[in-house]
C-alpha cells in the first residue's frame, strides 16, 4: 500500500470507516490508547479467537481451556513477582516532557544500526548479483562487521545493566549512544526510574492495604492457581496444557500505535506443563507449532521472525518472541517462554498448598516445568488488518481498496445481492441467505450499482459475493464473484454451500496445522 508510515494511518481510518475499530468513548473525544471493536471488528476478533482456541484445545487431546476471573487474590501477584518486579524502566526528556521506556529507546537505536548493516548487504547483493554470498559478505565486509559488533556490544551492556537492575548504567548507555528524543531532538534526559505497571483498586468498601486488589496484568496466573483443579478434575497427565483467552490490564507508560499497545487488551495464553528436564524439547515444539499457526493464515512468511530475549524475565530459562512486520516495523506479536517451575513453586510457598504432580511413569512427585505461549489478540488483529489492506491498480485504470483477510476469519463470508430491487429478486436473494445463514455469516445488500456493492465488500474483506438476477428465477443459477481474483462464475444455488465451505472453513486451516 502506501509508505509504511502512512500505512498505519490508513489502517486506522479504514478500521473506523468500516466499523472494525473505533476510538473508545469518542463522543467525549476518546480516552487515550483505548479502543472499541465495532460490528465487523468483533466478528474478526471472534474468528481469530476461535481459530486459536480450536488449534489449541480441539486439536490437542492433552490441552483444555478455562476462563478464570480477572480479579485474583492479591497474594497471586506477590507470588508471581508482579508486585515487586513488574516494572518498566522509564526516562523523561526534560525538553519535550515526553516519557519513554529506556529499554525501548535502546532497542530502537539498535534497530537503526541493524537497518544500516542491512542496507550495506543489499548494496552488495546488487553489486555481485547471482554470485552474492550473504553469509560471507556479513562476515567480511568491514562496515557490516563494525555495525554487527556495535549491536553485540550494546546488547551485552543492556543485558548486564537491566539484569542487575542498575538504572544508572542504563542511563549511561543512553548517554553514550547519544540517543536523542525523537520529539525535541535533545539529549537532556532525567534519571531512569522503575514504574509498576499494575492497575490497583479496592475491594468492597474497606480502605487500606489489605483490601488492595489488582486488575490482572496477564491471564497466565489464573491458569497456574488452577493447575491442580484442572489436573485432578480432568484426570490430566503430564505433559498437558491449559489455555485461556481473556482481558489483561497494564498501565503502560507509553501507550500508542493504535491497538498495538493498549492499557486494556486481550491475551490468548497457553501454559504447557512438562516433566522437569524436558522443557527444551517442548520449547522447540511450541516455537515450531506456533509459527506454523501463523504461516497457515498466509500473511506472508517474510513478515515473521524470531527474536531471542536478551534479558530473561526472572522466571524464565529461555524465551523468544515471534515478531511481525507491523506498519511500524518488526515488533513482538507473541512470546514463547520457558517459565521453569517458578510460578508453581512461588504459589506453593505463598499459599502453603502443594502444587505437585505424581508421575506414574517414573514413580515420582514433582512440580512441573512450564512452557508458555502468549499472544496478544489485539496485536494479531492489527497484524491481519495491516497486511491485508491493499490498494490495487486495475486493468481499466481504476483503483480498488481490498482487504485480503484470510477467508476463514472474514467477518462476512458472503454477500448476497439482487441485481435490482424489483421483480422478486430481493425475495430470491433473501431465500438464499435463509439457506446459508446457519453455516455462514451473510450480508444482504441491495443499495447502489453492483460495481459499487462489490467494492464495498472488497473493502470489508468478504471473500464471496453472490448476485441474483433474472436468470436466477428461470434456472436457479447465480453469479459468484471471488474477492481476490475478481473472477465471476455462474453456478447453481445448490453449489454455493460447498464453494463457500471449501474456502472459508476454519477446519481447512486446522488441517494445514497437522501437516
Ligand atoms: P512488550 O515488550 O511489547 O511490552 P511484553 O513482552 O511485555 O510486550 P508479554 O508480557 O510477553 O509482553 O505479553 C504477551 C503478549 O501480550 C505480547 O506478545 C503481546 O502480543 C501482548 N501484549 C502485551 N502488552 C500489550 C499491550 N499493552 N497491548 C496489547 N497487547 C499487549
Can you walk me through this structure?
The longest helix has 27 residues, at 102-128. The chain contains 18 helices and 23 strands. 41% of the residues lie in helices and 24% in strands. The mean pLDDT is 94. It has 515 residues and is α+β, with helices and mostly antiparallel strands.
Brief overview:
The protein has 515 residues and is an alpha+beta fold. The chain contains 18 helices and 23 strands. Adenosine-5'-triphosphate binds next to strand 10, strand 13, strand 16 and helix 13.
Bound molecules: adenosine-5'-triphosphate
Overall mean confidence score, pLDDT:
94
* Count of individual domains: 3
Which value, in Å, is the CA radius of gyration? 26 Å
Strand content: 15-25%
Which overall shape is indicated by the principal axes computed on the Cα atoms?
Answer: globular
- How would a textbook summarize the main sheet? 7 strands, mixed
Low-pLDDT ranges: none
Approximate helicity band: 40-55%
CATH topology of the largest domain: BirA Bifunctional Protein, domain 2
Distance between the termini: 32 Å
Q: CATH H-level name of the largest domain... which superfamily?
A: Bira Bifunctional Protein, Domain 2
CATH architecture title of the largest domain: 2-Layer Sandwich
CATH class of the largest domain: Alpha Beta
Tally of individual helices: 18
Strand order of the largest sheet: 3-9-10-16-13-12-11
Structural class: alpha+beta
Amino acid at each position: 500500500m502506501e509508505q509504511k508510515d502512512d500505512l498505519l494511518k490508513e489502517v486506522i481510518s479504514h478500521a473506523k470507516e468500516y466499523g472494525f475499530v473505533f476510538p473508545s468513548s469518542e463522543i467525549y473525544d476518546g480516552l487515550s490508547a483505548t479502543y472499541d471493536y465495532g460490528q465487523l471488528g468483533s466478528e474478526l476478533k471472534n474468528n481469530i479467537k476461535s481459530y486459536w482456541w480450536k488449534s489449541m484445545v480441539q486439536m490437542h487431546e492433552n490441552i483444555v481451556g478455562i476462563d478464570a476471573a480477572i480479579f485474583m487474590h492479591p497474594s497471586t501477584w506477590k507470588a508471581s513477582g508482579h508486585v515487586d518486579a513488574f516494572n518498566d524502566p522509564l526516562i523523561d526528556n526534560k525538553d519535550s516532557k515526553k516519557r519513554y521506556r529506556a529499554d525501548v529507546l535502546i532497542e530502537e537505536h539498535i534497530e537503526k544500526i541493524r537497518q544500516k548493516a542491512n542496507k550495506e548487504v543489499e548494496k552488495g547483493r546488487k553489486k555481485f548479483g547471482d554470485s552474492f554470498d550473504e553469509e560471507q559478505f556479513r562476515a567480511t565486509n568491514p562496515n557490516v562487521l563494525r555495525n554487527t559488533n556495535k549491536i553485540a556490544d550494546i546488547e551485552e551492556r543492556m543485558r548486564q545493566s537491566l539484569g542487575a537492575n542498575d538504572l544508572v548504567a542504563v542511563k549511561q548507555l543512553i548517554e553514550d549512544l547519544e540517543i536523542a528524543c525523537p520529539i525535541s531532538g535533545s539529549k537532556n534526559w532525567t534519571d531512569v526510574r522503575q514504574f509498576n505497571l499494575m492497575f490497583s483498586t479496592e475491594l468492597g468498601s474497606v480502605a487500606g492495604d489489605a483490601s488492595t486488589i489488582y486488575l490482572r496484568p496477564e491471564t497466565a496466573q489464573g491458569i497456574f492457581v488452577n493447575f491442580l483443579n484442572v489436573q485432578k478434575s480432568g484426570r490430566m497427565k503430564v505433559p498437558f496444557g491449559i489455555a485461556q483467552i481473556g482481558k489483561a490490564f497494564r498501565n503502560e507508560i507509553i501507550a500508542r500505535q493504535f491497538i498495538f499497545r493498549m492499557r486494556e487488551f486481550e491475551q490468548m495464553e497457553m501454559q504447557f506443563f512438562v516433566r522437569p528436564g524436558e522443557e527444551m524439547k517442548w520449547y522447540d515444539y511450541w516455537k515450531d507449532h506456533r509459527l506454523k499457526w501463523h504461516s497457515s493464515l498466509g500473511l506472508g512468511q517474510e513478515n515473521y521472525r524470531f527474536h531471542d530475549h536478551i534479558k530473561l524475565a526472572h522466571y524464565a530459562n529461555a524465551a523468544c518472541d515471534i515478531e511481525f512486520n507491523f506498519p511500524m516495523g518488526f515488533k513482538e506479536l507473541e512470546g514463547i517462554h520457558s517459565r521453569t517451575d517458578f510460578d508453581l513453586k512461588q504459589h506453593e510457598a505463598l499459599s502453603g498448598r502443594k502444587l505437585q504432580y505424581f508421575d506414574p511413569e517414573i514413580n515420582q512427585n514433582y512440580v512441573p516445568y512450564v512452557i508458555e505461549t502468549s499472544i496478544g489478540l489485539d496485536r494479531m488483529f492489527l497484524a491481519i488488518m495491516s497486511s491485508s489492506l491493499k490498494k490495487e491498480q486495475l486493468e481499466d485504470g481504476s483503483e480498488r481498496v481490498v482487504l485480503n483477510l484470510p477467508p476463514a476469519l472474514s467477518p462476512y463470508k458472503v454477500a448476497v445481492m439482487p441485481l435490482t430491487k424489483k421483480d422478486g429478486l430481493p425475495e430470491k436473494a433473501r431465500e438464499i441467505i435463509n439457506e446459508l445463514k446457519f453455516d455462514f455469516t451473510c450480508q444482504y445488500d441491495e443499495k447502489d450499482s453492483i460495481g459499487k456493492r462489490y467494492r464495498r465488500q472488497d473493502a470489508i474483506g468478504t471473500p464471496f459475493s453472490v448476485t441474483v438476477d433474472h436468470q436466477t428465477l428461470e434456472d436457479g443459477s447465480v453469479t459468484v464473484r471471488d474477492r481476490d481474483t475478481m473472477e465471476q462464475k455462474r453456478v447453481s444455488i445448490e453449489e454455493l454451500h460447498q464453494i463457500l465451505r471449501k474456502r472459508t472453513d476454519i477446519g481447512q486451516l486446522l488441517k494445514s496445522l497437522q501437516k
